[in-house]
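Escalated from tier 1: iron/sulfur cluster holo job.
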Amino acid sequence: MKYAVYTLGCKVNQYETQAIEAMLRERGFEHTSSGADVVIVNTCAVTAESGRKSRQAIRRLQADNPGALTAVCGCFSQLEPEEVASLGADILFGSGDKHAFVDAIVKALPEQRVDDPFKRRVFEPLPAGAVSGRTRAMLKIEDGCDNFCTYCVIPYTRGRVRSLSLADCAEAARDLAVEGFREIVVTGIEIASYGKDLPGKPGLADAIEAIAQAAPGVRIRLGSLEPTVVTEAFCQRLAALGNVCPHFHLSLQSGCDDTLKRMNRKYDTAGFYGVCEQLRRYFPRCGLTADLICGFPGESEGNFAQTLAFIERCGFLFVHAFPYSVRPGTKAADMPGQLPKSEKEARVRRAGEVIARMRRDYLQSWVGKTVSVLFENGHMGHSGQYCPVKVDDIVERGCIRDVLVTGTDGESLFGTLTDS
Ligand code: SF4
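Tier 2 regenerated the structure:
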């Protein structure tokens, strides 16, 4: 049997698709780009645009693979099952139950299963997924979110926080190290809440310690972080491990305190800036990246100007800026002061100019210094700080080498190998 697959959305979705593929391969399925027996779409609902792209992907895969069974899962089908069913989904699951989803595909029976995400209490462990060939693996340690930011549908599609036990985190990391992965990206929907559902309530630092100590020769990179989890003790514990990458992706969303409050974010800009300083104290010159929503309802020109000034002050390596997207059912969808699409897009472009400048400055600050690079193909890899690095020599994939940085084009670093 052959399958074709398309994934939309976040790293967790990518991870889960890779797990689905691994389970299908175990049962003798093969990947194909045409003539599939089953087409699989792992959908996303984080913005209205992702919903539109999810619908488009289902239609496209169906058209490219006439007669194939259509199997759909993910956040968009969790949120809009009737709509997905009307597109001809034979197997329709939400954002949970991936093992049963694969079982249903294998049985090739038309089936619908969208559960109540708020009733999920147990973390569903899935095989770890690989990105960048065999160099970097994702390890999902947490699912769900209890934060209810006013713009976000995720708590309604993923349910409450569920975590992988510390022992299972360590075992999965050990397995990935034995398989030869050189970097593990610790991921989840909201990993800062890791452990609140587990006996004894371990925290994210406990999970990172368990993973880093189980895979001592492997680089450990953290996925998107709520800034509130970063305390002095957290930084101290992570820095002491020695194999945690000096790169932190912080969920910022706005650089204006009024807007953060209306987003129901749990920090203000002073607290966020303190987090950046603390991380830099324990991980000198670390790469900081962030997410930013432009044009949140009621965001005035003055609010947005504050945001631009704030991100510049933080000195990020990169900021993923995107326009606010109305998600029906969320509080922000009913807030006054909704901005026109053109204004939201204009603000993304304005943020883009600041972001490009910050990136250039940060990369330039590495010229003349040495970075440690995990090579993903012959000439290219990423430093621990998550800077793309290119060299002239050909380096074997999966090798970690020291590179002296000789220049930058504002996007990547260029350099020469210094170790032999
Ligand atoms: S923390 Fe906020 S933005 Fe992130 S998944 Fe939870 S509700 Fe959504």
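The CA atoms of residues 63 and 82 lie 20 Å apart.
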